[in-house]
Design a protein that fits this description.
By secondary structure, the chain is of the alpha+beta class. It has a five-stranded mixed beta sheet. Strands 6-7 form a two-stranded antiparallel ribbon.
Amino acid sequence: MTASFTWWEKTVEYAFILQTEKKVDFAAPLAGVEERAGDGIFASDSRLVLIEFKRSYDTLSSERGKFANFANAAATLSARDAHHFIVYGYEVQKRDDDKPWLGLAAETYFSAKEPKTLNAMFDAGLSKDSFNAYLDEFLRLKRPDGRSSGTISPTAYASVFGVSKSQGVKTVAMEDYLIHELKYEYTMEPPQNAHEIRLPGMGGRF
């Protein structure tokens, strides 16, 4: 029997890009956010999708602990999460002597609805204003990063995808989007060397 293999969140993210780029016109990677001061990250006609990458289905339950009250958050946002997905991996092996490979599955964050295909996720985007309103409310309903420290860890794999006819599909890390578009503050907190995102005008950390 072929031994199982190990994968991580970043593996899932890479696999997602590889699987979807065959049918979706991915544009060149975005220039550094700091180089685009005064410009929007995405084209004005972009529809935005939020995707979080998790190692496996078993890790999805950990998301509940990241909210002050998950039931309240779900009741508030589940009717508006059609653009917000979790993508996770699972091991596929058709026969005992086959080499296993990584399969991908996806569902909406709160309502747990599965898209017809991975590419169909890109059809669910929101306008910038609607997306920003959802994202801001989503973060305010969470505990500070789901941890007592109130920091955003570099291992939080979440990306914002902008889909437009003029630029194809572009993607940027959620932290960069928060800083550039929602004006969250980005700091480094010694000695833990941890990343912080602060809500604008508030002392709380996200």
